[in-house]
Every structure is written in structure tokens, then in C-alpha cells.
Amino acid sequence: MPTTSEAIAQQTRQAASKLAVLSSEAKNQTIEAIAQALELAKDDILQANLADCHAATAAGIAKPLYKRLQLDEHKLRDAIAGVRDVGKLEDPIGKVQIHREIDTGLILKRITCPLGVLGIIFEARPEAAIQIVSLAIKSGNGVILKGGKEALHSCTAIVKAIKQGLSHTAVNPDAVQLLTTREEILELLQLDKYVDLIIPRGSNAFVKFVQDNTRIPVLGHADGICHLYVDQAADIAKAISITVDSKIQYPAACNAIETLLVHSSIAAEFLPQVATALQAQNVELKGDERTIQILSDIATATEIDWQTEYSDLILAIKIVDSLNEAISHIENYGSRHTEAIITEDITAAETFQGLVNAAGVYHNCSTRFADGFRYGFGAEVGISTQQMPPRGPVGLEGLITYKYQMSGNGHIVKTYTGANAKSFSHRDL
Ligand SMILES: NC(=O)C1=CN([C@@H]2O[C@H](COP(=O)(O)OP(=O)(O)OC[C@H]3O[C@@H](n4cnc5c(N)ncnc54)[C@H](OP(=O)(O)O)[C@@H]3O)[C@@H](O)[C@H]2O)C=CC1
Ligand SMILES: N[C@@H](CCC(=O)OP(=O)(O)O)C(=O)O
């Protein structure tokens, strides 16, 4: 007797195999139908989100996490616009990457194709479900979603609307599914027969837990312990504005900074100004001993602070004596997500961007740019923090694979071996 999750995964697999061979036009019509269905269900979705927000408030959710959970009319409108943006992107499926004559009449092609079925577990951020589904459909994949428990009603209303939209298209609504409990996730992890990729968006511990408990390939989207290093050659005005944006523009996002590293030769001038700007936005500051000598009214940062992703209006500050010291701090405590340097010294910027090992290494701009929409990918499934590709914001390209197609006319390998071996032509067509 299959478990509920197994039955769901089986249905998703069947629906996905049909979706995989749909034309670009049919997929784009489907994406438009999803956008329209979400618009039609707008009131239900916003109502469901209100219920989630009330429950989360009663449970004492932290303010930045509340903002992440909240789906107002503007956020929903932007998410629906994002669906249509994905529709406008080039179809990533069926692209011929290699077209080669191996010998006369023997032709090799490498062609992009969908992965199959994706299992995506994400935090309590309802619009993520919308972004993920649009990318999954455009890349020809079925998708099984599981959102954070605080977003249960919102995700249920969103997926209901999406399925409603799909019911008028060439795509079977079974291609998109929602799981709602942790127990179902544990079952999902065992379903390597039906699921081709698991993407866990969550803490390092959760991503590791998933990796340790499944044979399905895992694309980890883990912690963002992001740093901003203000170099001795920084432009102070730029440094202040970028620090404030990187911290407060969306503090619960994984690409917000948690630690500010400041070169000692600029610290006395920079720190009081940046502290005023950050404190005006209610950011709580913590500093190492040298920082506290300049900013006497802030708390002391300890070893734990360098390891912490606050996801909140809190920032740890450390003074360093060199670019190398900043790089080595990031090497020790960074999570390979997004790291930035503020400097007018091009050599320092190049050294930082060359040596820091992270998915994003930025110069003179905010870490908050780490985002699929801002990179021009239309949307993102999340931000991969693993070393192997896909790395950073994952868009359509991260959801496809390829296959080799070969066509001959009775060709056999024996012809190309032994004393009278024929040579391959290996001619790109
Ligand atoms: N790189 C990226 O793209 C992203 C990274 N993150 C990172 O995730 C971290 C925490 O985010 P947060 O919102 O608290 O997310 P959590 O790690 O608490 O939860 C994320 C999802 O994982 C599920 N989950 C967590 N633990 C388990 C478990 N043991 N078994 C089954 N399911 C589980 C949750 O389910 P349930 O809610 O039901 O418990 C939820 O659906 C932060 O470090 C953040 O930076 C977050 C989003 C994107
Ligand atoms: N790319 C997103 C942040 C990535 C993300 O999903 O973060 P999170 O808020 O932890 O869910 C953004 O810039 O808003």
C-alpha cells in the first residue's frame, strides 16, 4: 500500500513526463493561466495569509520573520508579474548544446531536458511557492512543495489557485503538489523512484539532515552568514549607504549581512557615522573590543556572534588590520553565500573577489542583489550555497539536465578499432 506521499509523488511523476515534452507555446499558455488564476484567487490568498499572520503573531513570531510571511496586495501583484516574466524567458528545454558529426551519417547531439520531479522545501515565505512553480513549469518539471508551517494557509490557497489554473491547460494539475507536514517530508526523502532532486531551503542543520536521510540528489540552499568588508580605501558615503541597505532592506532574507568588517585605518571616521545611520533604523549593534573603544554604547560581540545568522535588525562589527585578515575571517565564518567589499582600490577589490570563496563576491554594491529576479533570471528557486553548480540564485538553468542523442545508419564501433581502424571526423555541425 503506497503512503500518501508516495501516491502523490507517483502522480507528479506521471504528470511531469507529459509536461516534459510540451511545446514552449503550451508551457507559456500554462504560465499565463497560472497568473490569471492567482489574480482571480487574490482575495482568498490574502485572506489565508491574514489567518497565517494572525496565528504567527499570537505565537510571537519575530518581526522580520513576520514580514517574510506577510503577503500584501503589492507583494502578490509583484509575484504574479514575476510569473509572467518567467513566461517571457526563453524556453530552456530542447536546446542543442552539441551537434557533431562523429563520422559520415553518425550524428551526436546534446539536448537539454527537464530533471523530472523536484521536491522543494522552503521557509514561511508564501511568494516563494509562486516563483518556484513558474520556474518548474517553464523548465518542464513537476514539483512537490512544502512551505514553512507558519505559511500553511497561504501556501494551500496559492497551490489551490495554481491547480485551478492548470486545470484549463495542457498540464495536468498533478504536476504541482503541496505537502504540509514534516512527516510527509520524511516520506518524500525515501521516494528516489519518483523524485529527481530535493532542494531544501533552510538552516545548515536542516540541509545536512536532508543530505543524511536521502538517496535523492540534494541542492542545498542553506544559511546566509554574509559579510561586508569596508576597506581602508572605501568611499565613506558609499560604505554607509551600502551597509544600511545590506542590513535593513529585508533583514530576514538570507542575503542580508550579519557582520561588518572594518579596516582599522578607517574605523574612527567610518564607525560613528555608520552607527548613527544604522541606529536610526533600529539596528542593534554589537562590536569587538576595538569597536567598543570607538562606539562605547554598544554591546560586546563574542565568538557566537561571528557564527550567528540573526535574520533580524542586529549587526556584529569587527575591526581588522588588513584585507587578508578580513578574507580569513570570512573563510572561517562565512557560509559561501554572498560577500562584499567596499573600496576604491581596484587591486584590493580584485584580490577580494579572487580569494573569497562564495557564490557571490561583490564590489561596491549591496549583498541584497543576490536574487534571481535581480540577476535577470525572472525568478529564483532559492540561493544555492553549495560549491558545485548551480551556485547562487537558481533560475531555469539550475533545473535542467541534458541527454545525448545519437543517430547512425548501422554504424558499429568495430569499424573504428584494430589495424584498419577508420578515423572519426568529429566535425561540429
Ligand atoms: N539560501 C536560501 O535560498 C535560503 C536560506 N534560508 C536559510 O534558512 C535558515 C532558516 O530559515 P527558516 O525560515 O527558519 O527555515 P527552517 O529551517 O526553520 O525551515 C525551512 C523549512 O524546512 C522545514 N524543516 C525544518 N526542519 C525540518 C525537519 N527536521 N524535518 C522536516 N522539515 C523540516 C520547515 O518545516 P516546518 O516549518 O514545518 O517546521 C520549513 O518548511 C536561515 O539560515 C536562512 O538563511 C532560508 C531560505 C532561503
Ligand atoms: N533572493 C531573495 C532572498 C533569498 C531567500 O529566499 O531568502 P529567505 O528570506 O531566507 O527566504 C531576496 O533577495 O529577497
Helix content: 40-55%
| Whole-angstrom Rg | 25 Å
CA-based shape: globular
Note poorly predicted spans.
none
Largest sheet, described in full?
7 strands, parallel
* Structural class computed from helices and strand pairing: alpha/beta
Distance between the termini: 51 Å
Number of strands: 17
Number of helices: 15
* Ligand species: NADPH dihydro-nicotinamide-adenine-dinucleotide phosphate, ligand VHF
Enumerate the strands of the largest sheet in spatial order, edge to edge or round the barrel: 10-9-11-8-7-12-13
The average pLDDT score comes to: 96
Beta-strand level of the residues, as a percent range? Answer: 15-25%
Provide keyphrases for this structure.
429 residues, alpha/beta, 7-stranded parallel sheet, binds the ligand N[C@@H](CCC(=O)OP(=O)(O)O)C(=O)O, EC 1.2.1.41, Glutamate-5-semialdehyde dehydrogenase
Write the layout of secondary structure elements.
Elements: H1 4-19, H2 24-40, H3 42-58, H4 63-69, H5 73-88, E1 96-103, E2 106-114, E3 117-121, H6 126-138, E4 142-146, H7 152-166, E5 176-179, H8 182-188, E6 197-200, H9 204-212, E7 226-230, H10 236-248, E8 257-263, H11 264-279, E9 284-287, H12 289-294, E10 299-300, H13 303-306, E11 314-320, H14 323-333, E12 338-342, H15 346-355, E13 360-363, E14 383-384, E15 392-393, E16 400-407, E17 427-428
Parallel strand pairs: 3-4, 3-6, 4-5, 7-8, 7-12, 8-11, 9-10, 9-11, 12-13
Antiparallel strand pairs: 1-2, 1-17, 2-16, 14-15
